[in-house]
Design goal:
176 residues, 4 helices, 69% helix, elongated
Length: 176
């Protein structure tokens, strides 16, 4: 495999978890930094809390796409598992279709929200940056979640990957 193909493969498999992991590390460091500044040195800073909140938001919304790629979102499969294979597949696809439509709707609404923040300047209270930049996590998170859902179905169709990964009990793997 060539170097560009290996880089693409790494980015395709690790982008969300890499960025979300960095955001969690930044958030953890800044909260620890704030605790030490506040209680040890009695000299708190206001900017660390705001950046920690933004890092948490980016981590959460990118992790939703990661969970879609890994098919790790919480699902209630007990009812679906009562049905035979074809019905189980149809119910899974129906629920995913509803989820996909909702994800497209949320992507569109987050684009409109962020666009409105470009139109009417809202600044963060401490850092004074435009709120459109932190809120961009909604656009990226929902758009990436939508793309990952398409990717899951592409891989199911093209490579016969299961729509729901097998659990410890071995009951949930769904193929056509």
């Amino acid at each position: 495999m060539s170097l560009p193909a290996r880089i693409w493969s790494f980015l395709e498999r690790r982008t969300e978890e890499l960025i979300a992991g960095v955001c969690v590390l930044v958030m953890t460091f800044l909260v620890f930094f704030q605790v030490v500044r506040r209680y040890v040195f009695e000299a708190p800073v206001s900017w660390s809390d705001e950046i920690a909140v933004y890092a948490m938001l980016w981590s959460v919304y990118l992790s939703t796409a990661w969970a879609v790629r890994e098919r790790a979102h919480i699902r209630v499969m007990n009812l679906i598992n009562l049905f035979p294979g074809k019905i189980k597949l149809a119910l899974t696809m129906l629920s995913d279709l509803i989820w996909f439509v909702f994800a497209v709707f949320l992507t569109w609404q987050s684009i409109l929200l962020d666009y409105s923040m470009f139109q009417h300047r809202f600044e963060s209270p401490v850092l004074g940056i435009g709120q459109q930049w932190p809120y961009l996590c909604l656009v990226f998170g929902f758009a990436l979640m939508t793309l990952r859902m398409i990717q899951v179905y592409y891989r199911w169709y093209r490579y016969d990957e299961p729509l729901v990964p097998e659990t410890d009990g071995g009951e949930v793997q769904i193929h056509d």
